[in-house]
Amino acid sequence: MRISELSRQSGVPVASIKYYLRKGLMPAGRAMGATLAEYGEEHVQRLRLIRALTTLGGLSIAAARDVLAEIDQPHDDPRGMLGVIHYALRTPADAGATGAEELTERVDSLVEAMDWDVSEASPHRLALAASLRELSRLGMDFGVDDLLPYATLAAAVARLDLDQIDGIEDRMALAERAAIITLLLEPVLALLRRLAQEGEARRRTAEAAAPHTA
Amino acid sequence: MRISELSRQSGVPVASIKYYLRKGLMPAGRAMGATLAEYGEEHVQRLRLIRALTTLGGLSIAAARDVLAEIDQPHDDPRGMLGVIHYALRTPADAGATGAEELTERVDSLVEAMDWDVSEASPHRLALAASLRELSRLGMDFGVDDLLPYATLAAAVARLDLDQIDGIEDRMALAERAAIITLLLEPVLALLRRLAQEGEARRRTAEAAAPHTA
């Protein structure tokens, strides 16, 4: 298909498509002449992924390019790729990730207590330490014992996540799926938590008002 | 204390403090003369909260002011306040929240299946619908049955969250704590999930490589 049809099918304006091509987020189409190129279904899918990463995922164009480059790499171990993609993705809390070294010990203890096999190089260790430091400064010191119940639930979420990519043989499809699950399920989980918080808060208020009725 | 001492104790530069005062994020100090004001411990605490909301929380100055204004309001029901604060906070996925009306029915079914008492006016309903639509566009259609296991875990997280503010009598302290838990625990949970994902991915890879050893 021509670029105009690609724009129609993907819902992405032609100017944006050209911009993504120029920035290297998307492979070029098959050249059909000096100024004409032919695009395929894979370009439609790629455009949808770019849009999802940059809008819902909140990634910059540069960050999206890094993630897509990672997805395009061949990987020996399909599941290990998840970790690589992870590290390319923005860290939710890297704004304050310096000077939190004193709390990384607590993170290390937690990872050990959960028996998680996590690379020493994972940027999420320091990011978590930074978040804990910030909470501690605000008077909420979360020790390992306070974090364990949350970590146990996170492990259960991770099992559901991995179930979503089990059995996918195609490496490209697997990488794409892994990025989508990690990045785009994050707001879904945050929203489910907020809805659940409101439900739980109202339930407790109702129970406090009428303690003798269940 | 004077503004210089407030700056020292809070770690926030004097220029930033003056900016927050001007923007109405913080109550003025007690006037001690034409150009002198006296600040107290509550100003130190407030500055820490402003920094946390705007750095780790990722809020704009305007959004932080809205949240703080909500915290400063008197509330009849301390727990209900959580919901009000919620709605003032940024929605993780509001970037694509238009045109997802067709998926709100799915969200409504989920909320009903979970027996969550959530206001019809909650902006998180539409935001969740928008996230689900985006996932569906990318080939991952999450129906109510797919979402239920995630929602069940979110409910467990919400119970832990509410436990953190149980027993706090002071309304101001409660509101502040609620905002911190909702907003600043979000990156913590996201990071725990990513660490858990890496652990789970490696565990499954190891099991697949050596299926006969446990």
TrEMBL record, chains A, B:
Extract one GO molecular function annotation from the record: DNA-binding transcription factor activity
Question: Domain named HTH merR-type: which ranges?
Answer: 1-70
Q: What is this protein called?
A: Transcriptional regulator
Entry keyword annotation includes DNA-binding: yes
Give the species.
Streptomyces colonosanans
Q: Which SUPFAM superfamilies match?
A: Putative DNA-binding domain (SSF46955)
Q: Which InterPro entries match?
A: DNA-bd_dom_put_sf, MerR-type_HTH_dom, MerR_fam
Which superkingdom? Bacteria
Q: Which Gene3D superfamilies match?
A: 1.10.1660.10
- Keyword check for DNA-binding: yes
Q: Which UniProt keywords apply?
A: DNA-binding
Q: Report the SMART domains cross-referenced here.
A: HTH_MERR (SM00422)
